[in-house]
Amino acid sequence: MILSTVEMHTGGEPTRIIVDGWPAFEGRTLLDKRREAKERFDHLRRGLMLEPRGHDGMYGALLVEPDHPEADLAVLFMHNDGYSTMCGHATIALARWAVDSGRVARQAPETTVRLQCPCGLVTARVAADGMVRFESVPAFAYVLDRIAPTRTWGPVTVDVAYGGAFYAFLAANSIGLDLEASPMRQIVDAGEEIALAAAKAIAIDHPDEPDLAFLYGTILTDGEEGADGRPSRNICVFAGRQIDRSPTGSGVTARMALQVARRHVRPGEERLFESCTGAVFTGKVLRDAAPVGGRRSVVVEVGGRAHRTGEARFRFDDDDPLREGFSLGL
């Protein structure tokens, strides 16, 4: 078996776009295909994401046939530990690839790309210079100031918000960490432990789709809001111990929903968010959306840039004992 990919990155975070060679799905809807990928084809996810073809920080986007009538493309997001419901950095990469490759015809002054994701339809706009802005699904603050007991720091206070996936948020200095000075291993340890503690302490529910009802990761922030042209740094730890090298598109969306809930931002105001690589995403609340489970929800626009790094053809030989990949679990 040979799988063909296009390799891209957004702010340093990789996106391996799988364009050919994946076996056909039987499921009709995108969520059916997501469940089928877990049950029938997970060995291919592991083989592409993990060593020797990938690494513990790899991220993938599998192109599939859309079932949404307005979608140009449909995608299943994957990583070292499974499958995501939404991914902003990969959306930025996919939108640029779709236009640069001719999959979606280029328009002036910008091209609209409609991407069906497991969380819903996402609309992206690609400018002539490659800048991508996308409108995600409605985002909302789920809970504020909830306590999650941890072994290392005792009870920690977190907010949980949804931006296509659920994240727990807290300021790094609330547990004695500094996002620029603390060793990355300490930040990862904290992100993993807090995600597990928050998932245990806070019941997660999505009123529209049970498959989306889980805590995806922890986002530690510098405690700032990204206002007045000064980016706020955050680091997202997800899928156990994976570090997002980008500012995290779905995380930026969720952060904006939190700022709305705390009345720290108004529609039309732009915020800047920076990752551990220095890459910056923009965030802007465009408008209110219909309430989700009785909670105020908003449509957020996220902006960023992706770059193409290459193409690849990966073999899966039957006699290769490591064809399904491996992780050293560092």
List keywords for this structure.
330 residues, Diaminopimelate Epimerase, Chain A, domain 1, 2 domains, 18 strands
What is the secondary structure topology, with strand pairs?
Layout: E1 2-10, E2 13-20, H1 30-40, H2 42-49, E3 59-64, E4 73-79, E5 82-84, H3 88-100, E6 110-117, E7 120-127, E8 132-135, E9 140-150, E10 154-162, E11 166-171, H4 184-201, E12 215-221, E13 232-238, E14 242-243, H5 249-261, E15 270-274, E16 280-292, E17 295-304, E18 307-315
Parallel strand pairs: 2-3, 4-6, 11-12, 13-15
Antiparallel strand pairs: 1-2, 1-18, 3-4, 4-5, 6-7, 7-8, 8-17, 9-10, 10-11, 12-13, 13-14, 15-16, 16-17
Detailed description of the structure:
The protein has an 18-stranded mixed β-sheet that branches. The protein has five helices and 18 strands. The protein has two domains: 2-127 and 308-315, Diaminopimelate Epimerase, Chain A, domain 1 (Roll), CATH 3.10.310.10; 140-305, Roll (Diaminopimelate Epimerase, Chain A, domain 1), CATH 3.10.310.10. It is of the alpha+beta class. It has helices spanning 30-40, 42-49, 88-100, 184-201, 249-261, and strands at residues 2-10, 13-20, 59-64, 73-79, 82-84, 110-117, 120-127, 132-135, 140-150, 154-162, 166-171, 215-221, 232-238, 242-243, 270-274, 280-292, 295-304, 307-315.
Question: Would you tell me the structural class of the helices and strands?
Answer: alpha+beta
How large, in whole angstroms, is the Cα Rg? Answer: 19 Å
Oligomer: single chain
Q: What gross morphology would you assign?
A: globular
CATH architecture heading of the largest domain: Roll
Q: What is the CATH homology-level superfamily of the largest domain? A: Diaminopimelate Epimerase, Chain A, domain 1
- In N-to-C order, the SSE pattern is EEHHEEEHEEEEEEHEEEHEEEE
Uncertain regions spanning at least 5 consecutive residues: none
The domain count comes to 2
Biggest pleated sheet: 18 strands, mixed
CATH topology of the largest domain: Diaminopimelate Epimerase, Chain A, domain 1
Summed up, the helix count is 5
Please count the beta strands (DSSP E, at least 2 residues each). 18
Mean pLDDT: 94
Q: What percentage of amino acids are in beta strands? A: 35-45%
Distance between the termini: 29 Å
- The percentage helix is 10-25%
Top CATH class of the largest domain: Alpha Beta
